[in-house]
Amino acid sequence: MTTDVNENRTDWKLRFIFHSSFLLELPEAYLLFDYYQGELPELDPSKRLYVLASHVHYDHFSPVVFQLIRKYPGTTYILSDDIPERVCEEAVAELGIDPPEILRIRPGIEYTLPEFRVEAFASTDQGVSFLVEAGGGRFFHAGDLNDWCWQNVQRSRNERMQEAYLAALQELKKELQGEVLDVAILPMDPVLGEGQFRGPLEFLEEIPVRSAYPMHMWERYSVGDLFLKEHPEYEDVFHPIHHAGEDI
Asked: Could you say which DSSP state residue 195 is in?
């Protein structure tokens, strides 16, 4: 996925919804990532809504997303293939609505839609991460792609995790071919303790990014400010988030 990059994404709007969920508004469409709860703004009904879910974990996917069809007919779903089809079918049947368009995605799969292109990359947990290209800009939502360096586990386990994470970053870097991500959304999980900044820091060291934002913070929003305190060299790139519903 390579095109010329518009350095000023003035035609994009981005809102943090909750946890790892973000709403990206493009000129002709909305992309809702990893929604399971949180307040959504009113959407322009003339724009198509795409719902993307990176994996099956409850804090990244919920069957509640199918309720959006009642308000926004024509909603399209782009779901990681680890999300069971049965769960989707049962949710749709319970709502008594016509089955929506569901595109299944896994690492290496790419879809070209009228308003954007999306390609799936690996995760170091379950499912996928998303690279979106629209209007000459690039947007990356990491899902659960992170260097999950846990405390109180064998050192060899964390070493294998780091190796897998860095390998995934190299695949993304190879795809970008020297181009820059306009926006990157990265897990910054305080549950990891001392390792909470390891994955985001490695990402910023390896991948050229104009603006990066944290997610997966479990409402402990101070971690973003703490990251900048420890790594002020990224103050022009990394931007903390301080509350649900924040417009970026």
From this structure: G
